Amino acid sequence: MSTPAYRSLIDSFCSLTRLSNPHSLYEHTAVEFNGIDFTLLHQDTPSGGRILLHGDLGNLPAGDLATAAAAQRLLEMNFHLFDGHAGPVFTLNPQSRRVTLGVNLPLPGLHAERLVELLAELADLARAWRRDCFLERPPSERPMADLTRSALRSS
């Protein structure tokens, strides 16, 4: 069950993004933002709640070698994302078999404007994944550099 703080965030988010019927998103928030599918799951906690955010990056590339290379790249990126806290993580959705980026966000202090900014950043990341599975650019130009500097950790 969603809390008043989460419902307020969803109301503000819907107002900013011109989504109608925010009430329908209180219990299961699945939205398309900048052409990318996102799911937000609210967790009530003693510290004020959390949002588990999953962004659909897309499929793993076809072919054993390409799949292995892309999976290795995601594991390398997870290594850099891990900071001992609830940082972002790349996953494979077991139902859809699609790559997702999971982010654990504290609800207190999260404003709709920041959520919109974050979804825009993640949508850009998803498009980068869909272009080349993070494999075609030199390491200094891969999305990892942007992701580690992103406000994902400070949200």
Automatic annotation (TrEMBL):
GO terms for biological process: protein secretion by the type III secretion system. It comes from Pseudomonas straminea. SUPFAM superfamilies: Type III secretory system chaperone-like. Pfam families: CesT (PF05932). It comes from the Bacteria. This is Tir chaperone protein (CesT) family protein. InterPro entries: Tir_chaperone (IPR010261). Transmembrane segments: none annotated.
